[in-house]
Write a structure and sequence with these properties.
The chain has two helices and nine strands. By secondary structure, it is α+β, with helices and mostly antiparallel strands.
């Protein structure tokens, strides 16, 4: 009788966990990945693109890591790192709280994310972080692979 109670408890716990994972909806946004910088303005001074970048057509990458919640911006003059936390304000708008050694990257930034449909399986995601005179504009192009049916194996109909 004691073994059946343990089995019942394990089964109920397993069903509860599966139901939680099946219907759990995270209310956080995910900005992780490698992005291409379009414009970086710190305290009203445009850091990227410079005149040199316009002639050389060099794309500046911004790496955002969810693992340690950091934004890495490698620049020619110096590398900028900032820790971030995505929070909601009272109006249910998302804000990104940045902390960094760079003084202009400290505080709450409004985030605007726009998705442009470029083709049947291609999307361009534009993100804008803005706070006062500091602006970070970056984008990412996402190519989704088309679904391919599994190759039939021997014995399958």
């Amino acid at each position: 009788m004691r073994v059946s109670k343990v089995k019942l408890l394990i089964i109920i716990t397993l069903i509860g966990c599966l139901a939680f994972l099946a219907f759990y909806k995270s209310n956080k946004i995910n900005i992780e990945g490698t992005w291409i910088a379009k414009k970086i303005v710190l305290d009203g001074v445009q850091i990227y693109p410079t005149k040199v970048n316009e002639y050389l057509k060099v794309e500046q990458e911004i790496n955002i890591s969810n693992w340690d919640n950091k934004i890495y911006i490698p620049l020619l003059q110096k590398n900028i790192n900032a820790s971030y936390e995505i929070v909601k304000n009272t109006n249910n708008d998302y804000l990104v709280h940045l902390t960094s050694e760079e003084k202009s990257l400290n505080g709450n930034f409004q985030i605007a994310i726009d998705t442009v449909h470029l083709g049947p399986l291609t999307f361009q995601v534009n993100a804008k972080l803005k706070s006062g005179k500091t602006h970070l504009y970056f984008q990412k192009t996402i190519h989704l692979k088309p679904w391919k049916p599994e190759f039939p194996r021997r014995g399958q109909v």
